[in-house]
Write a structure and sequence with these properties.
Radius of gyration: 22 Å
Order of helices and strands: HEEEHHHEHEHEHEHEEEHEEHEEEH
Largest sheet: 7 strands, mixed
Number of helices: 11
């Protein structure tokens, strides 16, 4: 049994003491509407006060089982004591000094730990590390930097990305994103030179090689193919066998860089530090964020050392690699490797088995897909069409019963809980979903 420190003041199961939203939550939602951007997407009126492990408590004292982890961010659970301790200790010493212009050990230590674990070829010229690291504040910023690095190194301008992909909402990242029209509408022109193809199938790679490369997309001008090992926002889509290996082969044959976005799938979520490791494929660049620091804003670009040759001043960031965030990242990595990745594998298997039973009982729920604790199911109507209205109703009704869920894709529910989740909590989540489907 995995030993997970918990705050005994919070129950490990949902506890609702008011109608939802409660009076305190209603008041804060009203205040929020007056001053915050309408671009935020809020699926339900949850106003969080505190969290511990897989549980969060709202401002009215209602406790929820969290199957979202703040969009796959709180990998070690909410407020893990070891992460909190690392944050507190570092905060007493140094809050900020900008790793762009100065040096401090937490940034170097985390870079070393990530670099030595990067799934890249053995380093050249007797170098110790197979990667170099650039720290960012977010996944979008990591992907922005990866675009720049790929173009800088190859001296090429074109990029291949995928329909259904989500890489962020800043201009370069948004130009790669192919998830939802609302994310791009009325923001053009976007960064030029990006071509999208379908994700996850050999047919799409046939189209790339036999149609695009021979007509409108010269392979010798393509800097990078940017791909998620498992699509996140696009629906937790696992690619066909051999798909990622074939991208590697295409890149090798044409001098193209393979950039793998591990922002959502990485940092232990699938049971491996990086999801690409499931396929034994070595990319050229990896982008990551979300779970890297258990909730503090941090991201990273990992690249083979011979690629990261851009000169001083060509790319920088004021806050990326913040010492407090790096301290949280060091603690997070230690926890992932001391049991949480194993737990992700074991609990992911239980989750998929439980969702398979749910499918057998409720055929409008698809069979599950995913790896580790990155799992999704689709919802269908009685005619067999994807049914986003049913998906949205389930999410809303689950919230009213104390379970936090998020959608993805066209009509999918994603399950991306903190990696500290246990079997009892998985059973509780499935019982709540069964109650909703039975209504």
């Amino acid at each position: 049994m995995l030993s997970i420190p918990i705050n005994l003041n919070l129950p490990r199961t949902p506890r609702l003491i008011t109608s939802l939203p409660g009076p305190g939550a209603q008041a804060i939602v009203q205040r929020d509407r007056a001053v915050t951007s309408p671009s935020y997407t809020r699926d339900y009126p949850l106003v969080v006060s505190r969290g511990q492990g897989c549980m969060v408590e709202d401002v009215d004292g209602n406790v929820f089982l969290d199957m979202t982890a703040g969009i796959a961010v709180t990998a070690t659970g909410h407020a893990h004591p070891e992460v909190v301790k690392a944050i507190q200790e570092q905060s007493k010493r140094l809050l900020h000094m900008s790793g762009t212009d100065f040096y401090y050990e937490p940034m170097v230590e985390l870079a070393e730990q990530l670099a030595i674990r990067a799934p890249f070829p053995n380093p050249q010229n007797n170098a110790k590390f197979p990667a170099k690291v650039f720290f960012t504040n977010s996944g979008a910023e990591s992907n922005e930097g990866a675009i720049k690095l790929a173009r800088y190194y190859t001296k090429r301008s074109l990029i291949v990305a995928f329909l259904g992909a989500f890489h962020g909402r800043t201009y370069g990242a948004m130009s790669l994103t192919g998830s939802k029209a609302v994310q791009r509408a009325n923001f053009g022109p976007l960064v030029p030179g990006v071509t999208h193809i379908s994700y996850g199938t050999h047919a799409s790679l046939d189209y790339l090689e036999k149609q695009l490369f021979t007509t409108i997309l010269p392979a010798q001008e393509v800097a990078a193919i940017v791909v998620e090992a498992i699509q996140g926002e696009g629906g937790y889509i696992v690619p066909e066998d051999g798909f990622l290996q074939r991208i590697r082969d295409i890149c090798d044959r044409h001098g193209i860089l393979m950039v793998v976005d591990e922002v959502q799938a990485g940092m232990g979520r699938t049971g491996r530090l990086f999801a690409i490791e499931h396929w034994g494929v070595m990319p050229d660049i990896i982008t990551t964020a979300k779970g890297i620091a258990s909730g503090l804003p941090l991201g990273a670009i990992l690249a083979r050392p011979e690629l990261m040759t851009w000169p001083p001043g060509s790319h920088a960031t004021t806050f990326g690699g913040n010492p407090v965030a790096c301290a949280a990242g060091i603690a997070t990595l230690r926890l992932l490797e001391s049991g949480l990745m194993t737990n992700a594998t074991q609990m992911g298997e239980l989750l998929q088995a439980s969702l398979t039973k749910l499918h057998q009982r409720f055929p409008r729920v698809s069979l599950p897909r995913g790896k580790g604790l990155m799992v999704a199911v689709d919802l269908f109507d009685e005619q067999g069409n994807l049914d986003y209205k049913l998906r949205d109703r389930i999410i809303q009704e689950a919230f009213l019963r104390g379970l936090l869920l998020l959608g993805c894709g066209k009509a999918a529910i994603r399950f991306c809980p903190p990696l500290v989740i246990d079997s009892d909590q998985i059973h509780i989540a499935l019982e709540i979903i069964s109650e909703v489907l039975s209504c």
